[in-house]
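[scheduler] slot 2 assigned
[scheduler] job type: sequence-to-structure, two independent chains
[scheduler] chain ordering preserved from manifest
[runner] begin chain α
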Amino acid sequence: METATPSLLELQCAMRASLVVHDDRGISAHVVDAGMSPAERLDVYRSTFASVLTKALHLSYPAVHRLVGAEFFDGAARIFIEAHPPKSACLDDYGEKFADFLSDFEPAASLAYLPEVTRLEWAVNRVLHAPDVEPLDPRRLAALAEAERERVSFVPHPSAGLLRVDHPADLIWRAVLEEDDDALAAIDPGAGPAWLLVQRLATGVEVRRMGESAWRITAALFAGRPLAAALDEAPDTEASALLADHLAAGRFIDFSLNETSA
């Protein structure tokens, strides 16, 4: 009986099974034998697949790569790639779960700060590749009545993000990328916590420390909580100055009015 020709989707699924779980049964019959056996040719594809994804992780996590060294990083990357194959064709989107993976990776257990440096690098990667969106015009907010302003829920700019860390991940990250061995040696890995703002500027990505109260208000605003409720997160903070700074820096792109301010 003649075998039916597989559809493009079936071929793609079979190729994915070969690349990800090393199951060649569905694809080997459709690989041209031209100087190499199907098994040998698929091995080449698998090697290229792993190499490309490892390179993508290098680009997203340069400080982590330097901290642990190429051999350790590439070994961890191979295991990560097998456990977490890409779900998108965009390589900039690959590696989001790398920090969680390293948290449970036994060979990295002695580096308690490593997962947080990894999370910071992912936050940097996200804001670096975030789309350019026109920031909110503060005059729109100024046109509201005072009672309406309390009900405002902001939409954060995609090029700004927040991160709380228990270790000085920002200091470690900066010292490693600047290749400042003296600064790195002077860092107490147990010093923390820290509340970080990660934002893209015209000159590049900035990682800035915030006070805890200001960070909590900002986190509430970024989460879409009404302005009045967000300010309740830390009522002692100079909220007007904080909000003015966010608006001047373009950290919001829009807002809506909630039914209540709670």
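[runner] end chain α
[runner] begin chain β
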Amino acid sequence: MNSEKRNISEDLRMIKRGSGIIKELSPRLLCLSLLNSLLSAIIPYISIYISAIIIDELVGKRNLHLILIYVAIAVGGSLVLSVISNLMMNKINVMKVMLFPKVRYYLNAKKLSMDFIKLEDPKYTELRAKITGNMLAMGGGITALVDLMTSIASNIVSILFAIIILVGTFLKSGALKFTTVGVVNSVWFLCLLFLIIAVCVVLTIRNARTENKKDFNLFRTNSTNRYLNYYHFRYMEDDQAAKDIRIFDQRNLIIHEIFSKGRLPWLNIITSRYSLQQKYFGANAAISAFIGGIAYIFIGLKALSKSISLGDVTKSYASIIKMVSAVSDLSFSFSQIRNNNNYLELFFEFIDTPSESHNGTEIPARNNNDWEIEFHNVCFRYPFCEEYALKNVSFKISTKSRVSIVGMNGSGKTTMIKLLCGLYVPETGHITLNGKDISKYDYDAYLNLFAVLFQDFKLLAFPIGQNVATSIDYDDAKVWNSLELAGISDRVNSLPLKLNQTIYRNVKEDGIEISGGEEQKIAIARALYKNAPIYIFDEPTAALDPISEYEIYSKFNEIIGDKTALFVSHRLSSCRFCNTIIVFDNGQIVQMGYHDELLKDIGGKYYELWSAQAQYYQ
């Protein structure tokens, strides 16, 4: 919904909600900003008002003592308020700088709580990229709301002070005569001035609305930020990519991609924005000049009729100019804040993304690891695909069993694991745990049943102990035991800080770089530390040769004891020690049984896979 389709009440609700988020993230920011905006609006009128008094005194009695008092009040008052305003502004600027990372953290916190399937949906990844791009490039969204609200408040106060001064000055005579002097001194002449100003304000608002609409549409239709963000902040800063860039001489390719799809379109956008703003400010300057001319004529006539003093002339003209400027800024700010609601709408759409995670009952404790999981005619397809990734999948995982999930790449193995772990929800069919649909259990409690080692696992740039325990506080002995079982305790023990040693140099300069094999072992230790009743190994050893994979899987089999375990691979290293083998092909289970039984079917998929790899397992 754009600003033209929203009504005022909807805009106000969005602004109110955005203000609430700002208060949540930075409690004092809005209050201090609004208070400072009031001071900023008042300060100029102190000088305007007292200057008029001083001029009248100079023209009149010329009381030096009184003049000095007025000067002291004007200078002292302005100085004190300016110092207070500047001190407040320093605090406000710090808070505003801190607000940006807080908003990003707010968005990331939402992202962490979103359903996993949505993280792989282009709709939501594109939405998140737009929100960040709006904040970085356009200054729109939550972070812009502070400046816009304070601008509106400051301009409203400035207009009110100007009106009070003008009405008080121009109604001094109170005459309603039909002479020239009478007309100039009448209320109707003052009303005519305000009518002219009102017409100019309407023109300014329409002009600002048109400029902001074009500005938003200009940015909305481009995807430049994604190219710049990807190449500048991800690919170019990835140390692993640095090798490929040099070996394959990718520099010219990257520079061309950044320039043609990033910087050149961005320059076109900036040029177009500049052109739009020039047109707006040019038209606005013409309107302001017109109002200023009318004000000169009006004040001149009042002065010629001797209805106002020389001090009143300076005060009135300065007030009109301030009011015209404030009205212009106010109309632009109103238009901007409505336009900013377009950005807020994207923000709220993201954080309002509903969750399908279930909050059912707790899972009853079972000391004997007696867990039975069953798939019942499960079908699943990704939200951005027409083809089904899994079709009518049915199987049972018995307590304390060893299950090998095999099949070619893209056959549906990992998709099935993500469904099993509750990361995806079946489109049709259902999954049960001990006969009860997993959607009836508490989501977090269900996840605690699994220790999963994915192929694309990630370690954090944290100390090794925290990586293994996934917690700040942990049991040292348990961590060391997990590292020993994973076969990496000696390496960790040789490090200067041992468990407190940070891996990678992303965060700390004294961090260490570790090999891919060492990363795998730490990830294995992390899975072992969790001590979950069900272990899943989803091709974490895909980068290793078949023999090394077989050795690691065999060791897994020994370490986990009587726990249930699933070994997923497009190779067959775990098949000999598993009591159930499930063969996937094209999203379907095509065979199921044990090793010797499946080999008897020489026309089956398993026989084909085994024959191609048998040399590695002799």
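[runner] end chain β
[qc] chain β: The chain has three domains: 8-351, 371-449+533-618, 458-531.
[scheduler] slot 2 released
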